[in-house]
């Protein structure tokens, strides 16, 4: 029976169908005759001789097709004879004996007197010979592999050959071979040039000895390699830590890890990479982390202080494999950022102590915080790749010092005042892009505040002043800031602010209708320009109500609008807030006139000094208070702004910087100013913040939360009791 098709058929054709073989009689072939006279002499002895004498690299094949077919046919005929002359079992046994005899008699003695690199070279040469011998022996006895081996569930000829080599050669020399390979690898780690191809050939031998698995490679070579690697890098890291700074140590560590990865790719099995790198990282990174981070003169704190970004990035790359390695690093980063923030707080505290009067704005301090946040946000997002641990460290650090208040005014007040400077006219001179950038950065800083509700209260008061005094530089910027706060805290946080802007938008339409009504009412008489802004009480801050006696000019305007509004909105009640009004009063001193930009309260006071004709009347403080009907404390602020400020349009006796009940006032007989339009500011009647109201709002919110929690608890207990009742009555199944 001819052999089936195989990869060797073209070069080594089987005998023709129906023939018993070439050069053989058509009779029965005896076992010894076929083995000794044909197979052993013409194939096996010749193959061993070729292997022992050395292979000729110019020779493409050891046997010609005719020689191979003759030996194959002999084996084929001996295996296909009828019993008792079927020698398949005997040939299978002699195949194994031949390989075992050659390995034990020729190969093993040649290896026993070799050591180190010479052992590796001899072993790889002998392994190459064995692969050739095993291949040809499998070809000669191919018919056994196809039928006898399969039918008797025996190892294939190729596997049997590998098994013999493993049992007789590999198990004998594997420990010495592994040690020799590890010595070469350590030499390469020390900078020597080794024969990588030799090590790679030995690795392939270890892989082949696994017979389809990596068990032999892992147990005989990989485990000793990992142990030796641990010992090697324990020694190296001890030398590095003593003689190098932290950055230099980490440079060497990074180079070592990269070299190990490259080494695996060059001649080790790819499955070794993760294990090998883990051992190296444990020895040179994990066990040395504390010393490296705290090293005097070059530790992590020094790198952060000196802004060594490349070294910081390297630290993160090396230690980012495990979160537990990053924890001490993130802790030091948090402590460093906290220290830098506290330095800013301390500088502000020194300024407050040295200042004569503390103000509710400190743009220098807020800019410092913004610059600090920009710096370390960039550091976390680039050098630390935005890792969650470092994001948390940044957040914790800023929350700690941003909420550390010094002086009379809280940091929330300073941030709100900084926004006020940016958004109002006459404040910071910035482009639209710069304004948007500063607002975004300030909102980021705002997110770290604990008392966000206090910031909202202050910001709402300042927003109201900007809008009502027409000091807002841009409605778009106002809405942009509110939208950023809304994104951070939700719509409930900014609902009142949005309502304030909506009030002004609606008020523009109402004002146009009123102007037409007002013009019709005062037609033919001396007209005073008059406008009113109607505000929704729930949206705007609570302003102090001031009762006063209006002069006739203002009384008429007041009455016209009251009648108009009642006609339009009969079910609404107006409450006039005179402290928020603005007035332009024209005053003449000699031949020169000035337009005085004042509040409504200041205008009422000025007009009182206009009642005496050519000679201005003189009032005592009590007389003026009785005439105007303004409360004493508010009147003091009004008269202080007119008689003690930069522009003294009212003369006070005696001259001083304080207002007393015994003072007397009259219009300044001589007033001069380079500008024709003069703005006379007045101290605000209300505080920029109402801490008491904020605390009240917090109390209400806390009580509401407690009620919700109690309701949930009661509901759960009720459901539980209901379930027990139903179960007890048998209704629940």
Protein model, in words:
By secondary structure, this protein is mainly alpha-helical. It is 65% helix and 4% strand. The chain has helices at 31-53, 65-80, 88-112, 116-140, 142-151, 157-189, 196-208, 215-243, 246-267, 272-284, 289-293, 300-305, 309-319, 323-354, 363-382, 388-402, 411-423, 432-446, 452-468, 475-489, 491-521, 552-568, 600-608, 621-628, 632-643, 691-729; strands at 582-589, 592-599, 619-620, 650-653, 664-667, 677-679. It has a three-stranded mixed β-sheet.
How are the SSEs ordered, and which strands pair?
Elements: H1 31-53, H2 65-80, H3 88-112, H4 116-140, H5 142-151, H6 157-189, H7 196-208, H8 215-243, H9 246-267, H10 272-284, H11 289-293, H12 300-305, H13 309-319, H14 323-354, H15 363-382, H16 388-402, H17 411-423, H18 432-446, H19 452-468, H20 475-489, H21 491-521, H22 552-568, E1 582-589, E2 592-599, H23 600-608, E3 619-620, H24 621-628, H25 632-643, E4 650-653, E5 664-667, E6 677-679, H26 691-729
Parallel strand pairs: 2-6
Antiparallel strand pairs: 1-2, 3-5, 4-5
Rounded to the nearest angstrom, the radius of gyration is 49 Å
Described by the principal axes of the CA atoms, the overall outline is elongated
Number of helices: 26
| Largest sheet: spatial strand order | 1-2-6
Strand residue content: under 5%
Mean pLDDT comes to 86
- Helix % is 55-70%
Separation of the first and last Cα atoms: 76 Å
Unreliable runs, pLDDT <50, ≥5 residues? 1-25
Largest beta sheet, briefly?
Answer: 3 strands, mixed
Number of strands: 6
Structural class: mainly alpha
